[in-house]
Amino acid sequence: MTLAFITVGGLVLLILAGIGAATGGRFHPAHRVHLTLGALLTGLFIVEAGLILWAIPVLLDLAGLVDLAVVCRRILGGPAPGGTPGGVAAGLGAVWLGGAMLKGWWGVLWTQHILRIESAITPTDKREGFDLYVLASPRRMAYTVGGRRPQVVLTSAVVDELPSDLVEVITAHERAHAQNRHYRFLALAAGVEAAVGWLHPVGRAVDSVRLFLERWADEDASLTAPHGRDDVRKALLSACLSGASGATAFGDPEMVSARISALEGAEPSPFSTRLGSAYVALGCGAVMALALVVWATQMSILVLAHPGQCLA
Question: I need a labelling partner for 59 at 20 to 30 A (CA). Which of 20, 221, 245, 289 fits?
Fold first, then answer.
């Protein structure tokens, strides 16, 4: 039953992450990204660890290592629920979850690679921390490609049709994506979505992470805009940009509407008692997950080094 509690506990944390993503509206978007994505990753990690531990004794039995399987069951507090079929299903589930997460994570990184403009092409402007490219296109679009030398890409429709001050606000927004390495958060969120996005609260939390990343860049851009958040809101209303899949961009109309509403409201709080409590709760969950791994590793070493002693 211990393994069942571990696995269910991870699922509960995933669901709570989805619920928590809808709260804490006054927190800065950067904090909301860290808290929501941290809770999702911790929950997924616990589920994966629970499934692996659930499957190990059965897999050892099937491999003919009966003594080691007996030791594992003793360490884990007895036979796992479901017997052999349950253990095999848990093993397959662990493989599927891990593979799905890697596929989602790699998909974003591969998209970033495809979108990256070759170094042989001279950038329109070299700026501190990134290269700016303007591509000829009638479609208004802006996106950021991460890497050692990030790239901010605007289309000619943006540069030619919008006032120069708004173009600078858009560029500042994309620069924030580049400087904060938001593509890494996107890759992790895509991995979680591919693995457990079928859980409605998780899918909603991943969508929230993408929105929080855009709002994070909005708030950073407002720090350098002459009229602060009003300039960012004006740029959003004027541009209504769409972006390439897998890249940080201004997003679809629904996301733009949510960002405009946020910019029309009060500025997010940089820190608060509630925010500190949320970080403490997430830290406790991460410590528990790490303790689970350390315990499982120590038990595995004990089983492999002294199987006879463990059977006594």
Answer: 289
Which pTM was predicted?
A: 0.83
Work out how many domains the chain is built from and give that number.
Answer: 1
**3-state SS, one letter per residue, for the chain:** CHHHHHHHHHHHHHHHHHHHCCCCCCECHHHHHHHHHHHHHHHHHHHHHHHHHHHHHHHHHHCCCHHHHHHHHHHCCCCCCCHHHHHHHHHHHHHHHHHHHHHHHHHHHHHHHHHCCCCCCCCCEEECCEEEEEECCCCCEEEEECCCCCEEEEEHHHHHHCCHHHHHHHHHHHHHHHHCCHHHHHHHHHHHHHHHCCCHHHHHHHHHHHHHHHHHHHHHHHCCCCCCHHHHHHHHHHHCCECCCCCEECCCHHHHHHHHHHHHCCCCECCCHHHHHHHHHHHHHHHHHHHHHHHHHHHHHHHHHCHHHHHC
Long-range contacts of 268-277 (CB under 8 A, 24+ apart): 268/26, 268/27, 268/28, 268/29, 268/219, 269/26, 269/27, 269/28, 270/28, 272/26, 272/27, 274/24, 274/27, 275/24, 275/27, 275/31
In the chain, what is the greatest distance between 2 CA atoms, to the nearest angstrom? Answer: 79
Share of the chain above pLDDT 70, in %: 68
Give 87-120 pLDDT, tens digit per residue. 788 888 889 999 999 999 999 999 999 999 988 8
Angstrom distance (rounded) from CA 182 to CA 11: 26
- Rounded CA-CA distance 146/246 in Å is 11
Range(s) of the domain holding residue 268: 2-311
Q: What's residue 144's pLDDT?
A: 93
Please provide the size of the chain in residues: 312
Q: Name residue 269's beta-bridge partners.
A: 27
> What distance in Å separates the CA atoms of residue 155 and residue 115, rounded to the nearest whole number?
13
